[in-house]
Amino acid sequence: MDSFPPSKRRRKSKEEETETSTLSPVVIFAHGAGAPSSSDWMQRWKNILKEALHAVDVVTFDYPYMSGKKRAPPKAEKLVEFHSNFVKETSSKYPDHPVILAGKSMGSRVGCMVASLEDVNVSAVICLGYPLKGINGAVRDETLLQLTVPTMFVQGSKDGLCPLEKLEATRKKMKAPNELHVIDGGDHSFKIGKKNLQANNCTQDEAEDVAVKAIAAFISRSLEG
C-alpha cells in the first residue's frame, strides 16, 4: 500500500524519470530460417517481449533471402552483415536506450554472431530455441564461446536442435554470463503436447508466461548490473 495519500505522493525527479526511460531497451528481434517476421509466432512473441521488458520498441525485420521466391536460407555467417547493419541503423534511432538482440532459432544464432562484433554495442542477447546442433549433428558452439554479453536461453526440453546436455556443457565453457529456462515438453517452437500439459497441470500460455518472467528478470539484472 502506498504510504502517501494520493495528493501527496512523491513525484519522481527528472533524474529518476531519465534513468527509468534510459533503462527501457530497444529489442531487435530476428526471425528463424523458415518463417518471416510477419508470422503469427513472431508477432505474438514481439508483443510478449515488448510488454515483459517494458521496451521502448521491439523491431523486427526480414533477411533478404525471404523476399521473392521461397528459398533455403544461406549460411548464418552470410547474414551477419545485413543483421549488423540493421542493428546499427536501429541503435542510432534510440541513442539513449540499451540494445537487446532477440532471435528465434537461426535468428538467435546470427544475433549472437552480431553481438560479438567489436563495432556493435549490445547489452544482452535472448535466444529463443537456439539451434546448437547442425544438420550433420555436430555441436556448433563456437559462436556462443565468443560471446561476452549476458545471454538468456529459452529452450524446449524436446527440441531436437538443442539437446539440453549439450547446451549445459557449452554454457559451462561460455565467457558470457548466461542463464537457461527450460519449457518442459516444449519443441523447437515451445509447443507442448497435451500429455505434458496434463502431467504438469498447466496450459501452453502458463508455461510460456513462466519463461517470459525468467527472461524479464534476467534482462532487468543485466541492465541494472
From TrEMBL:
Location of the region described as Disordered in the Swiss-Prot/TrEMBL record: 1-22
InterPro entries with a match to the protein in the record: AB_hydrolase_fold, KANL3/Tex30_Abhydrolase, NSL3/Tex30
Domain KANL3/Tex30 alpha/beta hydrolase-like residue range list: 26-219
Pfam family, one: Abhydrolase_11
SUPFAM superfamilies xrefs: alpha/beta-Hydrolases (SSF53474)
Protein name per its UniProtKB record: KANL3/Tex30 alpha/beta hydrolase-like domain-containing protein
Organism: Psophocarpus tetragonolobus
Organism taxonomic ancestry: Eukaryota, Viridiplantae, Streptophyta, Embryophyta, Tracheophyta
